[in-house]
Design a protein that fits this description.
Structural class of chain A: alpha+beta
Helix content of chain A: 10-25%
Distance between the termini of chain A: 33 Å
Largest interface: A-B, 33 and 33 residues
Oligomer: homodimer
Order of helices and strands of chain A: EHEEEH
Number of strands of chain A: 4
Largest sheet of chain A: 4 strands, mixed
Number of helices of chain A: 2
Chain lengths: 114, 114
């Protein structure tokens, strides 16, 4: 996929970063892993592999610094953030964003820093 | 920073993912951490903090799956990949990409899958 800026083509069409940071139990910020993100990452990886979604990587990330919204994921190059709580949420993100090229609108996290 | 697609503004102007995956010594693929990426990540975080570069996150990532080029980093939303070996390389990426909005051209990794 060429870019419009003179940069090389994207290496991954979709690069999905799943926060799997884990803080100790009882930590005031909590953490995505403590809220189940590792299981959902595993599910997302397995589903994308089963569906043979090309040029897409489901990547484990440490803290994305949006813990208050977690468990969360960000998809680049779009820079769209989602909160996902269960396998149905993962399925919606895969279908609507990765396959259809739209957005799983009800799961999107507001990016307003206001 | 608004996008042209109807998506929300980007949450991070630059989201920098540094591969800090570590495989056991002697593993045939090697790993970015074994090649010093954690130290360079720490240096990059510290320098960006000292320089107060806004809306930029230096993020620890696990395997970015481009181990043969490592230690490596990818910067989104541009999707530009760099190999960095030392602090001077980090300084070049910060100055040319994050601050000047250009590219540290000599450090860029070819994205051609051909």
């Amino acid at each position: 996929m060429p870019t419009s800026t003179g940069d090389p083509p994207l290496y991954f069409r979709h690069h999905v970063f799943v926060c799997c940071n884990r803080r100790p139990d009882g930590h005031q910020r909590g953490s995505c892993a403590a809220k189940g993100s590792e299981r959902l990452r595993d599910y997302m990886k397995a589903r994308c592999k089963e569906m043979a979604i090309a040029e897409t990587r489901i990547n484990t990330s440490l803290c994305l610094d949006r813990c208050e919204h977690g468990p969360c994921v960000v998809i680049y190059p779009e820079g769209v953030w989602y909160r996902f709580e269960n396998e149905a949420d993962v399925d919606a993100i895969i279908q609507k964003h990765l396959l259809d090229g739209g957005r799983a609108a009800t799961l999107m996290i507001d990016n307003d820093r206001g």
